[in-house]
Design a protein that fits this description.
The protein has about 140 residues and is α+β, with helices and mostly antiparallel strands. It has one domain. Helix content is about 30%, strand content about 20%. The chain has 4 helices and 6 strands. The strands form 2 sheets. Strands 1, 2, 3 and 4 form a 4-stranded antiparallel beta sheet that branches. A two-stranded antiparallel sheet has the order 5-6. The longest helix is centred in the first third of the chain and has 14 residues.
């Protein structure tokens, strides 16, 4: 138990405001600081990281920034990429505009319990986005 407490004491980021400041500085470097807001950051003591949720101006969750609580470095492998954030901010998916309903809830597909046989790439290209829950 002692080693866990020693780890906590060595955190350079110990408050929500510090996590938001590091995140804001990161967003400035990728030039997205004006288009994004934050959710409530939380510390994950198991992995010694801070998770800072990223939201668009409509308050929709579009990704997260993961910060090493000990070193204050951004974990870029676990942080949502700039390209993905930009596409989510613009409502794009593979260059196409996103097709949402007015309140942001996904459309419900009319396909039920369907099994496709053939080349998976071709089948997925023909399948409506809202029709797959689990693969």
């Amino acid at each position: 138990m002692k080693s866990r407490n020693n780890k906590k004491q060595s955190y350079k980021i110990t408050t929500v405001e510090q996590a938001k400041t590091v995140s804001k500085n990161y967003l400035k470097t990728i030039e997205l600081d004006k288009a994004i807001e934050f959710g409530l950051p939380e510390v994950d003591d198991r992995y010694h990281i801070w998770r800072v949720p990223i939201r668009n101006k409509s308050k929709d969750m579009i990704g997260e920034i993961v910060i090493d609580a000990i070193t204050t470095l951004i974990n870029e492998k676990k942080t949502t990429s700039k390209e993905l954030l930009e596409s989510r901010l613009l409502g794009r998916k593979n260059g196409k505009t996103k097709n949402n309903t007015k309140n942001g809830t996904p459309k419900i597909s009319n396909l039920r319990n369907t099994i496709g046989l053939g080349d998976s790439e071709e089948l997925l290209a023909e399948t409506p986005n809202e029709s797959i829950d689990l693969a």
